[in-house]
Amino acid sequence: MALSDIRREMVLSAIEEYDKLGRDAFLKVYGYGPARDYFLLYDGKRYDSKAIAGVAHRDVDGQPLRAKDFSGGNATVALTLSNLGFEVTRPSDVIDGHSPENLLQKIFTLKTAASVSPGARKRHQPLTLLWALGRAARGYDRVVPWTDASPALESLLREFGHPGDGIHAEFPVLRLYHHGLWDLPCHDDVPSASGSAAQRWMQQNQPLNGLRSWVHDLVTDHPPIRAQVVLRLLDEYFRDLDHDELLAATLLIPPPSAITPAPDEALNMREGTPTPSRRTVTTNRVIRDSALAEQVKLLHDYHCQLCGIRLTTRRGPYAEGAHIRPLGTPHNGPDQPGNLLCLCPNHHVLFDGGAITISDQLVAIDVPAGKPITHIRLADGHTPESQHLAYHRRISEDSRVNRCDP
Question: How far is the C-alpha of 5 from the C-alpha of 61, rounded, in Å?
């Protein structure tokens, strides 16, 4: 009857029934009260975590757990669901009455106008948010004068916006203000985000501006939440751009490499060879999107998606971004979130070597043994794309067959 017996597909089945019945009916049918502190977040929706876990347990022994059969909270339900790759909000995540769910819901419901580029949306609000997220990641001031913000935002709009959409930074700031994400302190006469009157108001008042304090605190104190917002914006608005350039321009670049030796580790070097031989080598290599991989690792808080291990070095946590479909020739995989995994070094080697593949049901497979290992850990905002997983399985199988050929 342990919660540890629950599997991811059981939780998804309970979520499906929850959606079908509605919250009130679901809780009434299974005898649960509404959650107060711990909620499961999935696909932009919030679920009562204890009720979902208890109902999911029916697929273990045929009977759902009753509310009195087990305790909820951080050490039980939240831990179980988190280990299965789900996001669970905790009381400590709530800032000024707002939770990560509130922030993500606002990101999901941004109202962006149609671009002059066919089939595209304007990038003004997403670029403004990325600019602010980068400042939060660097520990910069939450609000800055408009005289500082305006040229920085217009530079981003000029470089990364759709041609012909304009570079007026006043409008995205005002739209984000009315959407509840942006702050213009000391002003309660903020105009709507349209027309020359809005531009005049910004120019005349030159307001301090930046993320709302609760938004800023969430994305500053919780890097995985910040990464989830970044990846959502990249996937929704910037799929055709060089992500590395965009993340660098918005200061969302990774910190110095964790494998850079610390000063005391440079001591006692081996003598080496005083006159090593040399030869000229010409290479043609793919430039890896290290900044994008860092966002994926941040989203998973550096936990391996296969084993859950989080390596901690003297310079902080360490994990590796693994491309599912290799980037180099002849594979030519894309450098996009859906083609990336967050893995520990050991599982990165095994995955790249074809000893482990992942099914369309997101189950890791031990290829030599032909047996399933575990469901991979997932995080909201990042899901491996099925076409890349299928490609990896195919090249892994081709490699295995070729090794077996006489």
Answer: 10
Q: What is the mean pLDDT of residues 246-252?
A: 93
Q: Among candidates 366, 337, 353, which has minimal Cα distance to 392?
A: 353
CA proximity to 135, closest of 220, 215, 218 = 220
Q: Which two tokens stand for residue 58?
A: 């029916």
Is the model's pLDDT at 233 over the cut of 60?
yes
Considering only residues 173 and 3, tell me which one the structure prediction assigns the higher pLDDT.
Answer: 173
DSSP label of 114 = B
Amino acid at 206: Q
HSE-up of 289 (CA within 13 Å, CB side)?
A: 24
Say how many CA atoms lie within 13 Å of 3 toward its Cβ: 26
According to the model, what pLDDT value does residue 44 have?
A: 64
- Is-contact 164 211, C-beta < 8 A? no
Residue where the block lists tokens 């077996």: 404
- Helices then strands (H, E): number in the chain? 16, 13
Q: What is the pLDDT of residues 170-215, one digit of tens each?
A: 999 999 999 999 999 998 889 998 889 999 999 999 999 999 999 9
| 357, containing H or E segment | strand 356-358
Compute CA distances 259 → 262, 320, 322, 351, whole Å. Answer: 9, 11, 17, 21
Give the amino acid at 387: Q
Rounded CA separation 238/231 (Å): 10
